[in-house]
Amino acid sequence: MHEVCHRKTDSPLGGTLASAPIDSDTVIEVTAQPGFLGLGQPTARAIATRAAVGGRLQRTLLVHGPAGAGKDAFVDDLLGLLFCTDAEGSRRPCNACRGCRLARARSHPDLVIGSPERWREERAQGESIVGAARRWLLNTAGAPVAAERRVIVIEHADLANEQAQNVLLKVLEEPGERHMFVLVADEPSRLLPTIRSRAQPLRIGPVPRDELVAWLVDRERLPADQADALARISGGLSGTAVSFARDARLVDWRRTAQQQLLDLLSRGTADRFGAVRDLLDAAASLALEAPPADDDQLSSAAQRAAALMVVDAWLDLGRDLLVVRAGRPAFAPSRELLSGVEAAAGRIGQAELMRCMRRLEQIRDALLQNAAPRLAMEVAMLAWPSVHG
Fold first, then answer.
1. How many CB atoms lie within 10 A of CB 122?
2. Consecutive 10-residue runs of the chain (389 residues): their mean pLDDT?
3. Does 3.40.50.300 match the CATH number of domain 2-203?
4. How many CB atoms are closer than 10 A to CB 56?
5. Where in the chain is the domain with CATH 3.40.50.300?
């Protein structure tokens, strides 16, 4: 038996992509072979499966790791494990039963999925985000209708503000007997310590390059040299690598954005500020059918998501410049895609570059806390070193 289920996913920029966004897979292969279908993560797999077989899974699970690590793919496996109906516990997820198929398609009647973004979008007129979170959490309290438990997934849980997290905490303190929460976060440190203390952490991280290359060759049918290049530029993050493999626009965009940033090293403030809109529009156009004609066509959430894409590519470029400066150019993936990385690294002082990297990290944090995207990008431009000659 072999069946392929297709699930569209909402882009963080507000559109719908046929290809996978940075941290998820849109094509879910469901086969009769039991077990997790995602790549790597042996520790998280072992913790989850052993606890499930032994009936010791905590009522709250925290799936965390960097953006692009493949958390969505792991959550799909986890949902299969939780909703599988195979009588033999050691075979779960069996990937053949109706429970597994519905779980992986995220259409199971006992699966509820929410996020701070969704709470914000679906709040009633005049309702606060805290009120929307409280209302949504109350609505999840119903009894399961088809499975042993109701599973509540909260994506981007770390983006909830402190007040909304306190509302969540009250629910987690007194979980229902037949309810389980799965929190998904890029930065678990942004969650309240009292939430983290009540959750079983499952960390999703980079996978070894040779393992990722083999996966891309086998599953994505890529030539070995292309698979190796994508594994390198993704930093071992399987979600990012799969996204690159399935949408060449992402690689082209990354190359173009990083080359533009390199070129701006020798340009003045006016040119740098002028480049901000181009960078944001190019990132946004990956998820929209056409580039926006003016800023008003992009929601603030879409602008922030676009700015985060740019800042992440910027941070990767900065790390590669530091690696080249340290005399290890072979470990700088951007060097394979761009011209001028080594020359630029030789003209930038290490201390200056380190200061810029710290500022970019601060800007990324500020964007996650709803900072104005254009202003944040302009601050980043001022921090970007200047080189001449």
1. 12
2. 36 31 39 81 92 86 93 94 89 92 94 92 87 91 89 93 93 85 94 94 93 91 88 88 88 91 93 94 73 53 86 92 86 75 87 94 88 93 86
3. yes
4. 9
5. 2-203
